[in-house]
Amino acid sequence: MDMARVVVGLPVGLLVTHRFDNEARLAELSARGSGEVIIIHGTNDEVIPVTMSRKMADERKDIVRFSEVPGGRHNTIQQQNAEQVATALHEIGH
User: Fold this and answer.
1) CA-atom Rg of the chain in angstroms
2) Which of 18, 26, 57, 93 is in Cβ range 3.0-4.6 Å of 64 for a Cys bridge?
3) Hey, which residues does 40 pair with through a beta bridge?
4) What is the domain range of residue 55?
């Protein structure tokens, strides 16, 4: 619902049928103990604003490792930015 509000600018979240509550899932994972979540987000994502991942990563520094891929888009980040994604995974893995 937050994403719908950010992207559309209107409170249309109630029309969204899929409820992906990443903040709640991160809280559950954190409560389980050790572990990490890796978020790799393209700076040109036209579906989910990169600011949302930045905020989540900033709020959950206890378990989130975050990397931005310059120019990465929502559905093509893996294909068009393969080198940047591989570099991000390598850097995060150390």
Assistant:
1) 14
2) 57
3) 67
4) 2-92
Residue 40 backbone dihedrals phi, psi, to 5 degrees: -120, 120
Q: Which amino acid is at 30?
A: S
pTM of the model: 0.72
Per DSSP bridges, beta strands 64-69 and 37-42 are parallel
The Cβ of residue 42 has, within 10 Å, a number of other Cβ atoms equal to 25
Q: Are 30 and 37 in contact (CB under 8 A)?
A: no
Distances (CA, A) of 85 to 43, 49, 94: 12, 18, 15
d(CA 33, CA 9): 37
Residue-wise pLDDT for 11-64, tens only, equals 655 666 666 788 888 999 889 887 788 899 999 999 888 999 999 999 999 899
